[in-house]
Amino acid sequence: MNFKHLQYFWTVAKAGGVMRASEQLHVTPQAISGQLRLLEESLGASLLQKQGRGLELTDMGRLVLSYADEIFSLGEELKEAVSVGPAGVPREFRVGIGDMVPKTVAFHLLQPALQLSPPQRLICREGQLLELLGELAMHRLDLVIADRPLTAEANIKGFNHLLGESGLTVMGVPALCKQYAGEFPACLNGAPFLLPGPDAAIRPRLLAWLAQRQIKLKVVGEFDDGALLKAFGKAGAGFFIAPTVLQEEVAADYAVSAIGELSGLGEQFYAISVERQIRHPAVLAVNEQARHALFVA
Description:
Elements: H1 3-15, H2 18-25, H3 29-43, E1 48-51, E2 54-57, H4 59-83, E3 92-98, H5 103-110, E4 121-127, H6 129-137, E5 143-146, E6 159-172, H7 174-179, E7 192-196, H8 202-212, E8 218-223, H9 226-234, E9 240-243, H10 247-254, E10 257-273, H11 281-294
Parallel strand pairs: 3-4, 3-5, 7-8
Antiparallel strand pairs: 1-2, 5-10, 6-9, 6-10
Helix pairs in contact: 1-2, 1-3, 1-4, 5-11
């Protein structure tokens, strides 16, 4: 049996379709379909059948999937066993960071991982949350840091660990704050504003918060990358939001000032892992840093 063909089938079954599997495997849908046909021919049975616009497993497909689960689970256990050092501690800590997570938050959370003994090599991957969760499901990542919890829609087995929550502060260059001085948040009416992109969990809540107070912003830009957004903020293009817990640091790094805090509106951050009970020493360090340092009330 060609195990590459089996892995393609396993990924399609877990991802819920050929298109999603192609995004996770970084190959074309046509290539995956071809590999699936070869697997079915080698087994002499159909594994998938059309159901509406999607695919569903046949009875034989469910049987093969159960064996594939065991095969790839054992394969990951083997890789983990080989990757640990003499003391049984993993040599690498592989983290996925959702592109909507402020990089300053990610830095503070991950910094303790570099201070562990024995030392570990920190490997960070940034990208869209669904793509990172697919990597987590395939054990290519140890942890995903996200601005939202894992939901059943992702069709991935994992566990949410709430790291903490921070209030949100509106910030801008001093000249902009002076120009729009007045009672907050009414002073934001008509002010230039830099919004996080549509994938940010906080965006719809921020817009709802403003709408409830009848505040109409002048949106001058939308950004999927938080660092780029702040760079435009530093240049005076508009106001932007930042986690209140990092307000002083953002002010120093980007030469901006706080104009006010969004009362009652907060942003949550999650660690998503395949472990219900955290055992990885670096993940434990991240959790401890969040609870006892970064997000202390």
